[in-house]
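Quick one: co-fold with adenosine-5'-triphosphate.
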Amino acid sequence: MTDEAIITARDLGVRFRRNRGSRRSFKDLFAGRARRTAPGEFWALRDVGFTVRTGEAIGVVGRNGQGKSTLLKLVAGVLLPDEGSVRVHGGVAPLIELTGGFAGDLTVRDNVLLTAGMHGLKRREIAERFDDIISFAGAGDVIDTPFKHLSSGMKVRVAFAVVSQLDEPVLLVDEVLAVGDKAFRAKCYRRIEELLAAGKTLFLVSHNERDLRRFCTRGLYLDRGELVLDGPIDEVLERYNADHPA
Ligand SMILES: Nc1ncnc2c1ncn2[C@@H]1O[C@H](COP(=O)(O)OP(=O)(O)OP(=O)(O)O)[C@@H](O)[C@H]1O
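Sure, here it is.
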């Protein structure tokens, strides 16, 4: 691990509406920052700040709906904060929703090519890694199948296989891995260990304590959108368990 900060998050806030699809009305766009929380709105995250050094492995814990996925989406840059900022020095390989940002109508092959290309892999590098990706996923039979027709488990297999082959320095893994079967999960965990050994930075959202202790050195505990504790993973889990006994 080096002392270099790879992620800096300051005063992060994300506001959602409880009962409407769209996050912002046209009128809101002109109301500016002075606008207070309107009725029906709530803060999914508020005043969240932390710094991550290269090579750290961070476990994000909290009950359902407390802002964990929202935080990962901010780090991935797929969601913009309403307050504060998050800066990542380098690219992010996100495995954060079942679809992994894949295009449902495109085939597995085209999704692999597109994702690898979007993350800056050269044509030759993609060609070299393509077979490994397909074989890691066990997706040889579905290469030309539209992604949307894959089973949930197979979607995750393909997404993990690609994301873990990108050269980005930061890897984000949401609970999606829980969908994979036991043998595939074991394979993913070995791959995550290799990536950590290679100096990558990891964010892992999980409700599985064993996984969190296995991979993570540090924990972020979110409750009602607030960062309750940022510390060594053992301390964070102890506090979380004390607050919410099974
Ligand atoms: N696009 C959205 N519009 C409105 N509310 C949302 C949106 N996305 C998330 N939320 C809400 O924000 C809160 C935080 O959600 P988030 O998915 O970050 O929780 P989480 O801690 O990851 O939960 P889980 O453990 O269940 O995955 C929840 O109340 C959720 O319903």
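If it helps, The chain has one domain: 5-243.
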